[in-house]
Amino acid sequence: MTLKLTNEIRQALHASPGQPVTIEDEQSNEKYVLLPMGTYQRFYNIFRDETFDVADTYSAQNAVAASSGWDDPEMEIYNDYDAHRNRS
Predict the structure, then answer these.
(1) pLDDT tens digits for range 6-50
(2) Nearest to 35 by CA among 52, 51, 55, 13
(3) pTM higher than the cut 0.85
(4) Nearest to 32 by CA among 22, 46, 19, 42
(5) What is the DSSP string of 43-79?
(6) E strand or H helix at 21
(7) Are 20 and 39 in contact (CB under 8 A)?
């Protein structure tokens, strides 16, 4: 089923192109997110995959962090961040 946009929703979409728009059902107070099809398609597998585990992304996260300089020895100070906090 494909629904047609109301003028109010169309204006909200045009006000922030490419960004999600929150819609609320006035009867149930349930909130929904309307997002562009291209964005939905990029995340489709995550939405439908009940076996998704964020741990599966750790190696990619580590690679990005390393390429951004987080493997620099000077960044080790952040591993003990809580030890340096004033706990009064």
Answers:
(1) 999 999 999 988 888 999 999 999 999 998 888 888 888 777 767
(2) 13
(3) no
(4) 22
(5) HHHHHH-TT--GGGGHHHHHHHHHHTTTTSGGGGGGG
(6) strand 21-24
(7) yes
Residue that is written with structure tokens 């999600």 in the block: 20
Give the three-class secondary structure for 31.
strand
Kindly state the DSSP code that residue 80 receives in the 8-state scheme: G
How many whole angstroms separate alpha carbon 36 and alpha carbon 9?
13
Using CA atoms, how far apart are residues 76 and 4, in angstroms rounded to an integer?
53
Query: What count of other Cβ atoms lies within 10 Å of the Cβ of residue 41?
Result: 9
Q: Which of 7, 12, 11, 13 is nearest to 37 (CA)?
A: 13
- Residue 57 tokens, joined: 């992304």
